[in-house]
From TrEMBL:
Protein name: Glycosyltransferase
All copies of domain Glycosyltransferase 2-like, residue ranges: 23-133
Family: Belongs to the glycosyltransferase 2 family.
Alphabetically ordered keywords of this record: Glycosyltransferase, Membrane, Transferase, Transmembrane, Transmembrane helix
Pfam families: Glycos_transf_2
Residues that span the membrane, as ranges: 279-298
Native species: Candidatus Seongchinamella marina
Amino acid sequence: MIPYLLFSTSQSNVVDERSLAAVIVTFNRLEKLKRTIEHTLINRFDLVVVVNNASTDGTAEWLESLEDERLIVLHSEKNLGGAGGFSQGFNHVATELPEIQWLVCFDDDAWPELGAVTQFQELEIPSDVGSVAVAVYLPDGEQISEMNRPSVNPFWHLKKFVGTTLNGRKGFHVGDSDYHGNEVVEVDSSSFVGCFIRVENIRNGAIGLPRSELFIYADDIIYVLESRKAGFRHFFAPSIRFRHDCETLVNQQDVYRPLWKVYYTYRNRLELFRIASGFFYPFVLLIKVPSFFLKFRFYEKSEQRMFFSITARAVWDGIRRDFRKKHHEVLAFSKLKE
């Protein structure tokens, strides 16, 4: 059932608002999902679309027990990964919910702070802005989630390119001062945690859907970069706050467990670097590929041999742009030998 507020003519402060749907992808993290849904439903979303990636932990039954009329649950027959789940969710909004103007996506371990929708409604968004990123913090609400820090593409901005060579990651990501300000900042990419997307650009074919073959990792940044290449601006709005209870990284460092995540990380990063760097891609390979392998020092000795093997597969497939491996295959070759 479509909620009343979308069609009410008696509340003038509501009629002119942008209609907004949340799109959440979940897989076997029921306890985290419960918290996410709780925080989502207390915000004024018009609809909430949850893509259940064939969870086996009681997620389906719990979702079906909920009675909020804004909730739409899509049950996938298999685990599509985050990329496939978001692709399915975006497609559903674009094709089945014509009244929705914007969507905002996030994982089952992230949630909007109270007032996030109101803050979004108050933004002035020019027609050429296709997406908006938000300020994402760790669960304490104080520490910035580094994996969700928006950035500009240094290969599109000469000044940032120089800054990257001198300052590394800090040279092209938004700074802490941008988080503490109230002004929007124009950027080129961000994660899908709290990413608002103008749905009409999907409906009219100006941008496509997230690339489901990527399964997880980099699909979000690639998607926003492709939107930028299509001519749409991307804003960072620090007044809108989300939190992310991410357990993938170790102390916010580039270390991934279980080890199968290493494969998707490096394979997909090569695709990301290809899209971002263009002509410079061969030079990026010379720098980045060795840096992948050097991450071995952050893993336990018992993991290092398998880490090298997985990374080699990822690099080989990434350079050849081979995204055919199924998830069960990745799991099979990523298991530590006893």
